[in-house]
Design a protein that fits this description.
Rossmann fold; 3 domains; 5-stranded parallel β-sheet
């Protein structure tokens, strides 16, 4: 029997309580629902079959996204039962790659606002505004200012689709209970002129403020969260690169927080590299990494690689010598005027190069190939958001220097990927070890079938979140993401590796997350960061926090 004081239409309009046709006859009589729903009592599985049938009739994944958001508005349990019934199918609809298109059109497809919209006009009373949220035991806040959404840039309030989607992944892939999740858009304006001129834009209609003003607003927000939601972990998502790095450094040693673009991306890429090296036979300490793109994702990944090598006894200075980066100004070199502090550890004593020309990729390829021939990287990582940057000559250059080149074009959505899987396998004659930023179909080449991997953060951050929830961790450390990377990598079988899979199947993502969270939770206890007693069975503790969508 549903335990609630709500009755009748009020109950049916609450998505956290509504069962639709799932209410029993006894519940209908007791809760004033008789006559308000059809007479039949259906199981959750019967309702799921109706949902999948209706989804199959939709013309596009954006239509399916809109349908599923409508389902979330009416029946939260059925929504999560749908996602968890076939993660490999449905996560591509509610998140990558569909979420990019959804964000671009977010204000035009908006139905019911989800989460909170904290405007900089609320400065001075953020605590008061946060208390308007009905759930008082919030455990995770995913917060963005819309400054750099995926590879799409400044989307302002339209970026709210990202924290909504990210938190849905916590539940759908790791079973983190949805009632403790709060998406927040921190609205300080946007510099996207078309949005400011759009009468349907739902954000603050002003340009972004100076950095000092923004950070003062974020300071108040972070302090307010500690008071209003004292057990909450703050997940920063899709801020501009400089802000992402600066804000993480500002708070990471003071409150429970992390940045998924920096640490989650780094963790999943490290997991991919660990498994790629099982195929190539190399060791992490011997790899040379060339990054195309030097934003927060690249810096986060490079820093995590340095930390991982530090665990193997390699000094940070030695590790950094194995990493080079290209950004919009060319090769990151020492002495470049205006070089941001976070890039300086990776700047090399080399001659400067010309600024990168995104409008003429053909003119850039010789410079990239020159860098490959000079540095001879074993791993090429794309976080540039420049589609088709890894052309045939670039892939062939990597193959000249490596029997099995490791190439990870990680930008998303799909049109922003530096290289697609069929190209990489064809141009390398099937020798590439590949992971991309989005899921791509199998590649058939010369009688072989390759299954391209997706280096998707969903393998990492939800599991780390589940570990944080189970242990009530005081802080979030890089070591937790390194442990998560090893845990994910260890769950890929030899047979899967032979097919080119560097990550477990998404169909198994919940169990993968539980096992990963268990290892991370053990590290939290070992690091004296837990705020709950250490149990004899850590996996049982983790599983006790896992949400299962049901009407029981």
């Amino acid at each position: 029997m549903t335990n609630t004081t709500k009755r009748g239409m009020e109950l049916l309009h609450d998505p956290t309580l509504n069962k639709g046709t799932g209410f029993t006859a006894a519940e209908r009589e007791a809760l004033g629902l008789t006559g308000l729903v059809p007479e039949v009592t259906e199981t959750l599985e019967t309702q799921l079959s109706r949902v999948t049938e209706q989804l199959a009739k939709k013309a596009t994944d954006l239509d399916r996204f809109i349908y599923l958001m409508g389902l979330l508005d009416s029946n939260e349990t059925l929504f999560y039962r749908t996602l968890m019934s076939d993660p490999a199918r449905f996560l591509q609809i509610v998140y990558d790659p569909t979420i990019g298109e959804a964000c671009l059109k977010f204000d035009h497809i908006l139905r019911r606002p989800l989460g909170m919209y904290l405007s900089i006009t609320h400065k001075g009373r953020v605590r008061e505004v946060l208390r308007n949220w009905p759930e008082k035991d919030v455990r995770f806040i995913c917060v963005t200012n819309g400054g750099r959404i995926l590879g799409l840039g400044d989307l302002g309030a339209n970026g709210m689709g990202i924290p909504i989607g990210k938190l849905q992944l916590y539940t759908a892939t790791a079973g983190v209970p949805p009632q403790g999740l709060l998406p927040i858009y921190l609205d300080a304006g946007t510099n996207n002129e078309p949005y400011l001129a759009d009468p349907l834009y739902v954000g603050l209609r002003q340009h972004r403020p100076p950095t000092e003003e923004l950070y003062a607003f974020v300071d108040e927000f972070v302090e307010a969260v500690q008071e209003v939601f004292p057990h909450c972990c703050i997940h920063f998502e899709d801020w501009t690169g400089v802000d992402a790095i600066a804000l993480l450094a500002r708070y990471r040693d003071k409150v429970c927080c992390y940045n998924d673009d920096i640490q989650g991306t780094a963790g999943v890429t490290l997991a991919g590299v660990i498994n790629a090296l099982k195929l190539t036979g190399g060791q992490l300490k011997d790899q040379r990494l060339l990054f195309l793109g030097a934003g927060s994702a690249a810096i986060g990944l490079a820093n995590l690689m340095v930390s991982a090598l530090g665990q193997q006894g390699i000094s940070a200075d030695v590790a950094r010598q194995q990493i080079r980066m290209f950004d919009t100004q060319g090769l990151v070199v020492s002495g470049r005027p205006g070089l941001p502090d976070h890039k300086k550890p990776y700047a090399k004593d080399l001659p400067p190069s010309q600024p990168f020309d995104h409008t003429s990729l053909a003119s850039e390829c010789p410079r990239i190939i020159e860098a490959i021939d000079d540095f001879k990287p074993t791993i090429l990582i794309g976080v540039s958001t420049v589609g088709n940057l890894f052309n045939q000559e670039v892939v062939e250059a990597m193959a000249r220097h490596n029997a099995q080149p490791i190439i990870f074009p990680l930008s998303n959505p799909t049109e922003k990927m530096e290289c697609l899987a069929p190209e990489a396998y064809t141009w390398s004659k099937g020798t590439v070890v590949f992971a991309g930023g989005v899921q791509l179909p199998p590649v058939h080449l010369n009688g072989h079938t390759y299954i391209p991997s997706q280096a998707n953060n969903l393998y990492i951050f939800p599991a780390v979140g589940l570990a944080i929830l189970a242990t009530n961790a005081k802080l979030v450390t890089d070591e937790m993401f390194i442990e998560a990377a090893h845990a994910v990598a260890d769950q890929v079988t030899e047979e899967q590796l032979k097919l080119g899979m560097l990550f477990p199947p998404q169909s198994e993502v919940l169990e993968v997350a539980i096992h990963t969270a268990t290892r991370v939770a053990k590290l939290v206890f070992d690091s004296d960061l837990a705020q709950v007693p250490r149990p004899d069975d850590i996996e049982a503790l983790v599983r006790s926090h896992v949400y299962t969508p049901s009407y029981a």
